[in-house]
Design goal:
Layout: E1 3-7, H1 14-25, E2 29-31, H2 32-36, H3 46-58, E3 63-66, H4 73-76, E4 82-85, H5 90-107, H6 121-125, H7 131-151
Parallel strand pairs: 1-3, 1-4, 2-3
Helix pairs in contact: 5-7
């Protein structure tokens, strides 16, 4: 287990699990969100994201990669030797997403160094860009997607 991708719905605990696993393996932990988000919540185009991901994955011989971003699967799974799917119940996942959003909105912590991106109470709980709303909308879809992928012998 040298190149691991941890996947799951927002709020499933990917970041926490990935950091702990990376520490145990002595490997760097790479976070897809850190590669994706630009300052002021800017979003890269696919070419920019794919290039950043490729550079990050090639920078070391082992890593734990935290995150989904389905369109990046051909790049990240080309060299991934293990995929870990965190598949917790909807209630647990939603609880964890709400708890994290609340904690982050209170702390005002910058999520990814150099971006200035922080989760505010308004953005987390009263916005169409809410991570909680995202969790509600994507939980079932992600579960079906990963069930299908697991069933696929390729």
């Amino acid at each position: 287990m040298n190149r691991v991708n941890v996947v799951g719905t927002s709020g499933s605990g990917k970041s926490t699990f990935s950091q702990q696993l990376a520490a145990k393996l002595g490997s760097p932990c790479l976070e897809m969100d850190a590669l994706y988000w630009k300052p002021d919540w800017g979003e890269p185009d696919d070419d920019e994201l794919f290039a950043k991901l490729q550079v990050a994955l090639e920078a070391t011989t082992s890593w734990v990669l935290d995150g989904n971003y389905t369109r990046t699967i051909p790049i990240k799974w080309a060299t991934t030797d293990t995929v870990i799917w965190l598949d917790y119940s909807f209630s647990r996942t939603l609880f964890q997403a709400v708890r994290r959003a609340f904690r982050r909105s209170l702390s005002g912590e910058e999520l990814w160094p150099g971006t200035g991106n922080v989760e505010t109470f308004r953005k987390s709980f009263f916005s169409t860009d809410s991570i909680i709303l995202w969790t509600l909308k994507t939980y079932r879809r992600n579960r079906l997607k990963y069930e299908k992928m697991i069933a696929d012998p390729q």
